[in-house]
Inverse folding.
């Protein structure tokens, strides 16, 4: 079986280096928010071209704390796409705010025109989360311009887009604040959970540091409301710092695999994703097919594992108990029925890529 992901293969070449780091951390006496976290924060911020990074426990916390840093609180509205597995939506709900679901374009990214229109329907839009889905930058410049004129804060969700670049700027350097995840399968992944919030505005970073630790202004002084415990471990920060110089190469290999799929897959019933430029770090390779489930079964039969990112839009999730029943977001709903992800990770070898292409091209036509 050609797997959708293979973390063992990814980490194997790093085994000795990571073991040495682990031994150092164990002997150091610093385990949470120590010098290794500070060093990684600085290195990652510099790599992204952003002034400050604040390490946190995971990407969903990063989104929540980013929203709190720009002042989102109970009763506020936050615009969010419905096709990113509830990550942004969960963060909005955790702030006591209300999601304003905005439909996406055919590539699954927020539609700026839909955002403008939906924003007219509410009187207190505080922020918008722009998700760079599947590793591709959204229309972030357009949204930043619009949001600045409206007084709406922009939070970038970069959990799938580490290093994606446009006009010399990387993901995370466009909005007011940006959230990253270092979950193991991400383009830059730890050996456990981890996340970071980046901001080019130092005053936001100055709020984020207390927010990740109980709202402390000083030890045991809880000055800032909305504080949480969401800290990054020394071990994960040191691992991530060691991996950071390899990220560019990993992204290049992901992009090459995606380009091979674009060049090799020829099928009238399969719609391939756009992308392939430097604004695309190919976190996932997601095609569309109206007979998606039949395609998945066909590929599985030929030894190709696939996944669906994502099968149920947020506004249809059972946790809302029908609250958004009347809301129709046609593109998001359609994508949920049609999307299928092919294996796309740096350690996939050329023979496997060819086998995936051949399996796709062998899908019987209607
Ligand atoms: C993975 C992911 C997150 C959440 O990150 P966790 O570390 O799993 O909490 C948020 N947004 C997107 C787009 C993601 O892919």
């Amino acid at each position: 079986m050609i797997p959708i992901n293979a973390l063992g293969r990814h980490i194997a070449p790093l085994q000795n280096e990571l073991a040495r780091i682990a031994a150092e951390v164990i002997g150091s006496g610093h385990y949470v928010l120590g010098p290794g976290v500070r060093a990684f924060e600085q290195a990652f911020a510099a790599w992204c071209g952003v002034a400050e990074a604040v390490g946190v426990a995971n990407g969903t916390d990063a989104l929540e704390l980013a929203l709190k840093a720009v002042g989102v609180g109970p009763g506020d509205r936050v615009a969010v796409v419905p096709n990113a597995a509830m990550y942004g939506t969960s963060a909005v709900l955790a702030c006591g705010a209300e999601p304003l679901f905005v439909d996406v374009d055919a590539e699954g990214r927020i539609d700026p025109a839909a955002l403008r229109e939906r924003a007219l329907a509410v009187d207190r839009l505080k922020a918008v989360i722009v998700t760079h889905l599947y590793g591709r930058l959204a229309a972030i410049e357009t949204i930043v311009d619009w949001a600045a004129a409206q007084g709406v804060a922009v939070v970038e969700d970069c959990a799938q887009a580490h290093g994606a670049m446009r006009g010399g700027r990387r993901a995370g350097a466009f909005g007011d604040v940006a959230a990253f995840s270092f979950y193991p399968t991400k383009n830059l992944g730890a050996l456990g959970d981890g996340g970071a919030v980046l901001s080019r505005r130092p005053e936001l970073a100055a709020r984020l540091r207390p927010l990740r630790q109980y709202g402390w202004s000083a030890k045991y002084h809880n000055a800032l409301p909305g504080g949480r415990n969401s800290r990054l471990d020394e071990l994960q920060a040191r691992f991530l710092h060691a991996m950071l110089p390899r990220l560019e190469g990993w992204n290049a290999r992901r992009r090459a695999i995606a380009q091979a799929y674009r060049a090799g897959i020829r099928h009238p019933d399969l719609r391939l994703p756009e992308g392939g430029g430097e604004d695309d770090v190919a976190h996932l390779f997601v095609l569309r097919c109206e007979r998606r489930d039949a395609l998945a079964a066909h590929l599985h039969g030929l030894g190709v594992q696939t996944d669906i990112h994502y099968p149920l839009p947020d506004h249809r999730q059972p946790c809302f108990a029908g609250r958004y029943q009347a809301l129709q977001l046609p593109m998001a709903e359609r994508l949920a029925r049609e999307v299928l992800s092919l294996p796309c990770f740096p350690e996939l070898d050329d023979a496997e890529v060819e086998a995936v292409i051949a399996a796709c091209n062998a899908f019987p036509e209607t």
